[in-house]
Amino acid sequence: MDLVACTEAIRVKVGDDSGLNATLKFDCGSDGAVFVDALAAPNTVGNENKEAGCTISISLDNLGALLKGELNPMNAFMMGKFKVSGDMSVAMRLQKVV
């Protein structure tokens, strides 16, 4: 799954009102970023690489697997497949969305 496909998948899952009430960034390093602005109405998803209330550092491959349901978010976190910085409660709420 490439960055464009991941961005679109996140856009569909987030919808117009995700209930996250925060900004969130999936930082895929040199592959780019997906920025979710769930403070905006409607929620927006794009590829801006800007500061967010919660940042999830994850490889593009792992993000794709997460979005396809092939990777359990809790197990992936425990195994160090991604790191969360900033507001951890946003990452916890994200589980309901993704």
Task: Give an overview of the whole structure.
- With 98 residues, this protein is α+β, with helices and mostly antiparallel strands.
- The protein has a single domain, classed as SCP2 sterol-binding domain (Nonspecific Lipid-transfer Protein, Chain A, 2-Layer Sandwich).
- Helices cover 37% and strands 23% of the residues.
- It contains four helices and five strands.
- It has helices spanning 3-14, 60-67, 73-78, 88-97, and strands at 23-27, 33-37, 44-46, 54-58, 82-86.
- A five-stranded mixed beta sheet has the order 3-2-1-4-5.
- A hairpin with a 5-residue loop joins strand 1 (23-27) and strand 2.
- Helix 1 packs parallel to helix 2.
- The longest helix has 12 residues, at 3-14.
- It is globular.
- The model has no long low-confidence stretch (mean pLDDT 95).
Number of helices: 4
Number of extended strands: 5
Shape: globular
> What is the residue-mean pLDDT, rounded to a whole number?
95
Task: Present the secondary structure layout.
Elements: H1 3-14, E1 23-27, E2 33-37, E3 44-46, E4 54-58, H2 60-67, H3 73-78, E5 82-86, H4 88-97
Parallel strand pairs: 1-4
Antiparallel strand pairs: 1-2, 2-3, 4-5
Helix pairs in contact: 1-2
Task: Jot down its keywords.
alpha+beta; Nonspecific Lipid-transfer Protein, Chain A; 5-stranded mixed sheet; 5 strands; 37% helix
Summarize the structure.
The chain is an alpha+beta fold and 98 residues long.
